[in-house]
Amino acid sequence: MTDASPSSSPLPPDPIAYDSERNKHARMRGLPGPVIVGGTDPSPEVGLREERKYLRLLVWMVAIIIVAGFVIGIAIALAFGV
Questions:
Q1: How far is the C-alpha of 58 from the C-alpha of 51, rounded, in Å?
Q2: Where are the domains of the chain?
Q3: Pick from 59, 63, 7, 75: nearest CA to 35
Q4: What global pTM score does this model have?
Q5: Alpha carbon distances (Å) from 71 to 43, 68, 81
Q6: Distance between CA atoms of residues 51 and 44, nearest Å
Q7: What is the pLDDT of residue 25?
Q8: Cβ proximity of 41 and 47 under 8 Å
């Protein structure tokens, strides 16, 4: 198992990434490396598209549950003459 932390990397850290706000906070918290590895998505549009798809699915599921509740309630009321 290899350690992928930047402190064990043979390459020096990127000076622009070193000065980022995120890495300044990491150094203040005492994290071992000079920069936080990862966390940058090269193509965020793919993930956002998938999230929108699941959000639409969630909205449809909630709407179906609400409508089904009304339909079942009306069916019970009609069946038992309430």
A1: 10
A2: 1-40, 43-82
A3: 7
A4: 0.50
A5: 43, 5, 15
A6: 11
A7: 74
A8: yes
